[in-house]
Design goal:
six-stranded parallel β-sheet, about 50% helix, Deoxyhypusine Synthase, alpha/beta, 11 strands, three-stranded antiparallel β-sheet
Length: about 375
């Protein structure tokens, strides 16, 4: 029995880390001391991201859920990932993109404390997002910018959220230049790099609230949600027909997670196009899998839907960690271990990708006639 155990254990490295020294880099800290439990899963996720997801110019989609940008993670983590070519397309909550605008407009947010009197904050005009504090005027100034911007001629039509965010990002970029700022906003960085950004629930944020209000003033703008479903699937399909892997990095869960993963069922189940699922899966979440909630749904569960390639299930990682801890560590590890890549400028390939999936749907898809009996 002892010999069998030894033979079995030979395929696993010995767990016996050295003591941490003062000059240890973040990447070395992760490789050398994140050896078990969720630290071990984060190490595996960092290595998966840098060694397999990014290799051979693979396509990387990132979903963003939770109040990440108010905490400064847009500037500290997501912009460096965009500028380094480590992220090719994004699905975000509208709230993350709305609060991202504060930075591009040089409006001030403050590190505070959750242990305050919220009635008093309301009386003095201070907004709180847990321990992030800012003046109520930050919301009013951001709202005014959105309303003014969407009156421009290029917004006076129905469009997908990728086109909307690209156009909005152009105006944020111009505002940053006017203010003499380097890139502060995810929307600005994505506009410059040609990285498409989608929002799965465009009405569920202050951006959507402002666009809805403007519709009462006869604005011709409207979100084309059907376009978003097809365009996101088109990007995944484009990767596969160009012999690239498709990977998902899920920061949190919620609607953006599902919207990113449903691209494969859209291709396979709905359009009838032969496909095998996303190749690599990394999620950082604090949600449990046993409550039936979407955010805790595991990669193996995603396999049953066709969302993840079953052959690559061992290369799927879930780290049950607060994203505000995990994302900076992943970013630092990536910057240290993976060379920067030229941007794919996927936004500029959107029409090409859309036409390719449209033709594939007409080739493989079927439309059934449903008899309705009264």
């Amino acid at each position: 029995m002892e010999e069998k155990a030894c033979q079995h254990l030979k395929k696993y490295p010995r767990l016996n880390p050295e003591g941490i020294e003062g000059n240890l880099s973040t990447a070395d800290l992760i490789d050398q001391t994140f050896l078990a439990y969720n630290a071990g899963r984060l190490r595996e996720g960092c290595q998966l991201f840098t060694r397999k997801m990014l290799s051979n110019n693979g396509l990387i989609g990132m979903s963003l859920t939770g109040a990440l940008t108010p905490a400064g993670l847009g500037r500290s983590c997501i912009i460096p990932l965009i500028e380094g070519g480590y992220v090719d397309w994004i699905i975000s909550t509208g709230a993350n993109l709305y609060h991202d605008l504060h930075f591009g407009l040089d409006l001030h947010l403050h590190t505070g404390t959750p242990f305050v009197n919220d009635i008093e904050l309301r009386e003095v005009g201070v907004i709180r997002i847990y321990d992030v504090l800012f003046d109520y005027d930050v919301l009013l100034d951001t709202d005014a910018f959105v309303r003014q911007t969407i009156q421009a001629p290029e917004f006076q039509k129905m469009m997908g959220t990728d086109e909307f965010h690209h156009n909005l990002g152009k105006y944020v970029y111009e505002r940053e230049k006017k203010l003499g700022l380097k890139t502060q906003s995810i929307l600005s960085a994505a506009y410059q790099a040609g990285v498409p950004i989608f929002t799965s629930s465009p009405g569920d944020s202050s951006i959507g609230m402002n666009t809805a209000a403007m519709s009462l003033r006869n604005s011709q703008f409207a979100f084309d949600v059907n376009h978003d479903v097809n365009q996101t699937a088109a990007f995944v399909h484009w990767a596969k027909i160009n012999h690239l892997t498709s990977s998902v990095v899920l920061v949190g869960g919620g609607s953006p997670k599902n919207f990113m993963l449903q691209t494969e069922p859209q291709i396979q189940e709905v359009m009838g196009i032969p496909e095998s699922g996303h190749d690599y899966f990394l999620q950082m979440t604090d949600a449990r899998p046993d409550t039936g909630g979407l955010s805790g749904a595991t990669p193996s569960e995603a396999v049953s839907w066709g969302k993840v390639n079953p052959d690559n299930l061992p290369d799927c990682v879930v780290a049950y960690l607060d994203a505000t801890v995990a994302l900076p560590l992943l970013t630092a590890y990536c910057m240290a271990r993976a060379p920067k890549r030229p941007s794919k400028r996927l936004y500029e390939k959107r029409d090409e990708a859309f036409e390719a999936i449209r033709q594939a749907y007409f080739k493989h898809g079927t439309v059934e006639k449903i008899e309705r009996h009264h």
